[in-house]
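**User:**
If convenient, please work through this fold.
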Amino acid sequence: MSSVRDKVAVVTGAGSGIGRALALLLAARGARLAVSDIDEAGLKGTVSLLPGEVHAATLDVGDRAAVEGYADAVVSHYGVVHQIYNNAGVSGGGQSVLDTSWEVYEKTLAVNLFGVIHGTKAFLPHLIASGDGHVINVSSLNGFMAQPTLSAYAASKFGVRGFTEALRTEMLVGRHPVQVTVVHPGGVKTNIASATAPLTAAQAARVRVYNEKLLKMPAEQAARIILDGVEAGRPRVLVGADAKAVDRLVRLFPRRYPVLVARYERRLFGDA
């Protein structure tokens, strides 16, 4: 039997991309769903595709009080929560450290890192109480490899990895009935690279390259890999051949990989 069947699963960032695909696949595998997104129209689109009972709420995961209220609402609705998929995220990339504004750093960390922390802390007591909980936090291949112009994004995704791995050790030490999984997707066809606005001409050019050459995997395939990993109880899920290759590169050449990344960057985008 599927480990998600009849479980109450919460998915943030469910209005599009991997979040929507996760919600649809969870429903197909028999889960009961609570879905949220800051994009109300996108969220409504997801809900329209879902069968049966769904708890839906517009939510800014960067707002701690809002996430805490959301957790209370979901528990009040279902009486229990088993799984939280902290998936909501923004790109936060496209410029050098010198040129990236404080506003971009603050927003990227608020959504990508603190959004994960908010969701985990708000739902964790309920996951423990369920007796069969699972925290699934979505990082990125940029959670173990940094790239130029992605300092805010990489910082947030490295942070998600560290936070999630620390949480897993705590659940093991405390013998809590909660599994913990960190997910590292590679290039998945979503709108995350295009969602940042407004874009400079250089940023728009980078987005085109990402969309045409790097973001290849359908979100549905990514969701299937993630849920298969969750059902198998894997603590770490690499999504895509690119994520697996980059993971090996960083492990084999921890000191040299930045040089290799810089060379690849110049080939792909040209000199800035």
About this structure: The chain has one domain: 8-269.
